[in-house]
């Protein structure tokens, strides 16, 4: 059973031409796949459908073996699927880094002490402890991206959706991101325009062209 399955997805933003014209993909447990395609092809749009941020006009979204359609169907999907958005500012909203990372665990009912222990643990794992008490909106673009990853990984998601995760990262941090992702057990669906990064993290790919996905490997 695939973890994620998109079947024959059709979609147009209201008032615009269709961008998805029958796109299908599936991701199995432990699998790592990239989605390739030109700017504006609809790659981010596809990822947003997996967590119910957008609804297809036609076609089926299935996650963890269940068809997801209504808003309520996506509540457990959002808890179990970690999504690193293209723009970290869409994801970080608390005053400090520690509070931003603690937000998810607190929301799940963890105590303050438990949540802060999880924060310290994930920051240490990602070698980001020095950022713990920094003001989130004053972080650099690359620091924000790494903190975003921490807010996602602290939830121990079963699948990762990564939209341009190397944006704003310098070479050293990109290398660290490769090491971190390579060491994770989760299945991943990755959008990246960086061929070197893709080759190391998720060399198998789908290509999105004219609203249709084709497996490339
Ligand atoms: N909310 C929206 N309303 C209208 N059009 C939108 C909206 N969001 C995205 N679009 C348009 O839909 C198209 C697909 O966007 P999407 O972000 O999915 O592309 P992408 O393949 O991820 O592109 P990139 O590689 O540049 O990130 C683009 O032309 C974009 O401008």
Automatic annotation (TrEMBL):
Pfam families: ABC_tran
Name of the protein: ABC transporter ATP-binding protein
Database matches in PANTHER family: ENERGY-COUPLING FACTOR TRANSPORTER ATP-BINDING PROTEIN ECFA1, HEAVY METAL TRANSPORTER
Family from the record: Belongs to the ABC transporter superfamily.
Chain coiled-coil ranges: none
Organism per entry: Marivivens donghaensis
Lineage per the UniProt record: Bacteria, Pseudomonadati, Pseudomonadota, Alphaproteobacteria, Rhodobacterales
Lineage top rank: taxon: Bacteria
InterPro entries, per the entry: AAA+_ATPase, ABC_transporter-like_ATP-bd, ABC_transporter-like_CS, ABC_transpr_CbiO/EcfA_su, ECF_ABC_transporter_ATP-bd, P-loop_NTPase
